[in-house]
Write a structure and sequence with these properties.
967 residues; alpha+beta; Beta-Lactamase; 6-stranded mixed β-sheet; 31 helices; phosphoprotein; phosphorelay sensor kinase activity; EC 2.7.13.3
């Protein structure tokens, strides 16, 4: 700068100071140094606000900085008539002073401010009313200064308000401008407006001059309309094409705006306020969204799945055609919350709850439910939805799909069923393992009992057999009135007691050979009530109860009677011979869940025998051991401890289980559960137990014990039979090779040497397949017994036996074999199917009908078949449904006779399948009491309830055949 300030202002009486635009003092005259009490060295180079500080945001600070800012921004001088401003004196105290200042800009060549020259006068004395020159005009001067202060304060407030509104106007997110006059001259425009139009310099220009590129787009016409009518106008999303410079590319915008008239004090329009928003981004996004939606819907319509969308609150607002096609619902009928109308009623609550949770938490939705198809059926779907979000992350809607999972659900159900079966098998296996572990824990005791049982069964029973045989032979030779007869009877009773002891040991060890048959326990109980009464004595009252519709069970009748007798005797002893014994028979059924929680129980149907006494009861420590062998609560010499052990072993060996409930002073309840059988009770001919039935056949008897062999020989010869005794298998084979006229092999099972009785029987039957075999033994082990039951077709006479038991069993085996000899098994049938020609009788010739009999019970099958053959029928036999169908397809069969309760395929299922192939086939159902619905459905059927007479069967066949012929 070339101005010589010292030459101009150095000697001036008024204080001057020069500042740059940072308010740094660069020059001051002597008057300024004097009035401020500063030296030149102290001032020059210092910021004025540092050298003369005022409290921040005070009136002094705001007035001084505001004036400097105005000068720098406008380039014009500014005057502060009065400004209070504190100043630090030489002694360091701060004195409140009042000043009047003028700030004059010194400009550069380009018009910008380079320096500010401050001329400041100290008017403190004048402000405070102290006259420095005279008193005449002092009041007026003071008033003038005070008015100047008021004006300064008002100006300061006005400037602050102006600054605030200018800042708010300039920083507003919407664009704003003020237009003046009918030509719409720009008076004010905020930064947002300037940015929108391309940073043009528009102040003082009309809109047509400032924005010629808007010509023809309707904005000028709207401004003229608002100015002339005085009514505001507003538009949303109006397009505007702007071109900031002729060289720039035209750019299209979308704006929401309002033109509002401004009025003067008289109410006339003198300008227009313009305000609005640039919504170009929103419009672009909406257009892109519309295009995206259209692309999405086109894609969704081509997808094989159900696709739908929903608003942010979860109401459906669009569904693809596949949903309407599947549900048959009219288009639009599932919008909003109405989508639940096609859900299965049982699934609605869960689906809605899941959907509500997803909406509230703005997370993915997934649920499985059934959706109704147009035909009314329901199919499982997995329904998924994902939230849609705007650029700022806000939830804007949902898109979802429905995928058919019916086949997966079906597979899952099948897997569940398989798993349930697996769990049942695993549970059963676990129970078996638990039982095995329990058995292992007592392995030493059980081994000792098993060895004892085997020794007793083999050796002791042989001794008893010799004794009982000779006792019976002696009894035959003496008269009934002989005094020896009583002693023989006592000896016989002792033998029976010894045999019972061995039998009890075998029962507990589950090695007692059982011969189970279908039984009605109600009938068995009725037959044994008198025996039980005798056993418990007159002091014990016996009450029995049999449930209506009691099921049958498959058990060994003799062992069942012994079990009842043992329970009754134990109850009598617990009651000291006085009390009430209640025996109840009923039905029980255990499901898989019960069986899973009770390891000793298999699920199924059972017949339950409940024996309750009113005795003393037992504590828990006694109950835990009550079924152990040789454990007894009776005094020495009054019990073996094998009674309940035998009952326990019999129940388990019969496929059932036993429970006990007791408490001291409350009596005891023992329940035996035996599996139900669907087979009917067999109706056999009554065996004559009186006298002796003689025979003349020849018997090959094999027994290694000399005394037993000799006793048995004498008993058989006494019955009239011819006996060929042999001590071992080799001797027996030698006899067979030498003598061919042998009618029966009667052999012990357990014999020394390499060949036992069972292996001997196999060898002999290879030579003589028609030779019947009767086994005898006191301890059969596993030779002819498996799972505690005799092998199918095996005949056994347990030692010791009486002569009466021997004669009955011999005759049963011989008579059965004589009937079987008539049958001629078909080659390769292995006993399942056999064909026999009718007897050449006149009656057979007259009937001439071929009949197929299907019955799984061998004796019943034989009886029916032989009776029909004797009546002149040609008979085919089968023991199961598949083999019966083979015969029907291979032979010309005129009628079918079938049992209902066949293994595997039932008789009703067999009859239905047979009728499908042979529509006119007459069918007779033989049943033990089961309702046969197939007879009514198929027609031309007869139902015979076992036992029935042969004449009833023949009459039924005649009726059915005659009816079929008539049709």
């Amino acid at each position: 700068m070339q101005i010589n300030l010292d030459a101009i202002f150095a000697s001036a009486l008024s204080p001057y100071v020069l500042l740059d635009t940072d308010l740094r003092m660069v020059w001051a005259n002597e008057a300024y140094l004097k009035v401020t009490g500063r030296t030149r060295e102290r001032l020059i180079g210092r910021l004025m606000t540092e050298e003369f500080p005022a409290p921040p945001d005070s009136v002094s600070d705001k007035m001084l900085k505001g004036s400097f800012r105005k000068v720098i921004e406008t380039g014009r001088a500014d005057h502060l008539p009065l400004i209070p401003y504190p100043i630090e004196t030489e002694d360091g105290t701060v004195e409140d002073r009042f000043w009047s200042a003028t700030h004059t800009p010194i400009l550069r060549d380009d018009g910008s401010v380079e320096f500010i020259l401050q001329n400041t006068m100290d008017v403190t004395n004048l402000y405070r009313g102290r006259d420095g020159g005279g008193l005449d005009h002092l009041p007026e001067q003071v008033a003038m200064v005070q008015r100047a202060e008021a004006v300064a304060n008002q100006n300061l407030a006005l400037e602050a308000m102006t600054d605030f509104f200018k800042s708010a106007f300039d920083q507003a997110p919407s664009f704003m401008a003020v237009l003046d006059g009918p030509d719409h001259v720009f008076k004010i425009a905020n930064r947002t407006y300037i940015d929108l139009i391309g940073k043009r310099d528009i102040m003082g220009l009309t809109v047509r001059e400032a924005l010629p590129d808007l010509e023809g787009q309707g904005f000028f016409d709207l401004l003229d309309q608002v100015y002339s009518s005085g009514e505001p106008v507003s538009f949303k999303g109006m397009p505007a094409t702007l071109q900031a410079t002729p060289e720039a590319e035209p750019e299209k915008f979308y704006v929401d705006f309002m033109f509002h008239p401004l009025r003067d004090v008289d109410g006339g329009v003198n300008g227009i306020f313009v305000q609005g928003h640039d919504v170009t981004g929103q419009k672009t996004a909406e257009a892109n969204l519309a295009a995206t939606r259209e692309k999405f819907r086109t894609m969704a319509q081509s997808m094989p799945n159900h696709v739908w969308t929903a608003d942010r609150d979860g109401g459906l607002n669009w569904l693809n055609d596949r949903i309407y096609g599947y549900t048959g619902a009219p288009e639009g009928s599932l919008y909003g919350p109405d989508w639940v109308n096609v859900l299965h009623p049982d699934d609605v609550d869960g689906a809605v709850a899941d959907w509500t949770d997803a909406i509230q938490n703005e997370v993915n939705y997934e649920s499985e439910f059934r959706i109704r198809a147009a035909d009314g059926s329901y199919r499982w779907h997995i329904v998924r939805a994902s939230p849609l979000r705007s650029d700022d992350g806000a939830l804007s809607g949902w898109v979802g799909t429905n995928t058919d999972i019916e086949e997966r659900k079906t597979s899952e159900e099948q897997i569940e069923r398989l798993n349930a079966t697996l769990e049942t098998r695993v549970s059963r296996r676990n129970r078996e393992l638990e039982e095995l572990h329990a058995t292992l824990r007592q392995s030493q005791k059980m081994e000792a009992i098993g060895g004892l049982a085997g020794g007793i069964a083999h050796d002791f029973n042989n001794l008893l057999q010799v004794i009982t045989g000779n006792l019976q032979l002696v009894a035959r030779e003496i008269g009934p009135d002989s005094p020896v007869q009583e002693r023989l009877e006592q000896a016989t009773k002792s033998v029976s007691r010894g045999a019972m002891l061995a039998s009890q040991l075998l029962s507990f060890a589950r090695k007692q050979p059982l011969s189970p048959v279908p039984l009605n326990l109600g009938e068995l109980l009725a037959e044994n009530t008198d025996i039980l009464g005798s056993a418990v004595g007159e002091g014990v009252e016996i009450e029995t109860s049999v449930a209506d519709g009691l099921w049958n069970t498959n058990v060994d009748p003799n062992n069942m009677e012994n079990a009842l007798l043992n329970l009754a005797i134990n109850a009598r002893d617990a009651m000291n011979g006085q009390g009430c014994l209640t025996i109840e028979l009923g039905n029980a059924e255990f499901d898989d869940a019960y069986a899973a929680s009770h390891p000793v129980v298999d699920a199924g149907q059972y017949v339950v025998i409940s024996v309750r006494d009113t005795g003393c009861g037992m504590p828990p420590e006694i109950i835990e051991k009550i079924f152990e062998p040789f454990f007894t609560t009776k005094e020495d010499g009054h019990g073996t401890g094998l009674g309940l052990s035998m009952v326990y072993g019999f129940a388990k060996q019969s496929g059932g289980h036993i429970t006990i409930t007791s408490a001291v002073g409350s009596g005891t309840v023992i329940n035996i559960y035996l599996p139900r059988t669907l087979k009917a009770v067999e109706s056999g001919s009554t065996v004559n137990t009186q006298g002796v039935m003689y025979g003349t056949e020849t018997i090959l008897m094999v027994e290694d014990d000399d005394e037993v062999r000799e006793t048995a020989r004498l008993m058989l010869e006494d019955l009239g039979y011819g006996v060929l005794p042999a001590a071992d298998a080799d001797e027996a084979l030698t006899i067979l090779d030498r003598i061919h006229n042998i009618d029966l092999l009667f052999t012990d099972v357990v014999m020394p040497g390499k060949t036992n009785g069972q292996e001997l029987a196999k060898q002999i039957q290879e030579i003589r397949p028609d030779l019947p075999v009767l086994f005898t033994s006191g301890y059969v082990q596993d030779a002819i017994v498996h799972d505690g039951r005799l092998d199918e077709g095996v005949q056994l006479l347990s030692k010791p036996y009486t002569q009466s038991e021997l004669q009955r069993k011999i005759r049963q085996v011989l008579d059965t074999a004589s009937v079987s000899d008539v049958r001629q098994p078909e080659a390769g049938a292995q006993g399942a199917v056999a064909q026999c020609s009718s007897q050449d009788t006149d009656e057979g010739a007259s009937r001439g009908l071929t009949v197929l009999v299907c019955e799984d019970d061998f004796l019943i099958l034989t009886d029916i078949a032989e009776g029909l053959r004797e009546a002149g029928y040609t008979v085919f036999e089968a023991t199961n449904g598949p083999d019966a169908l083979k015969v029907l397809n291979a032979q010309d069969v005129g009628a079918l006779i079938t049992d209902v309760g066949l293994p595997g395929q039932s008789g009703e299922e067999l009859a239905t399948e047979a009728r499908a192939t042979f529509p006119g086939l007459p069918i007779v159902f033989a049943t033990g009491g089961i309702e046969v619905r197939a007879a009514e459905v198929l027609g031309n059927c007869a139902v015979l309830t076992k036992p029935f007479q042969e004449t009833q069967l023949r009459d039924a066949l005649d009726r059915l055949v005659s009816k079929a012929a008539a049709e």
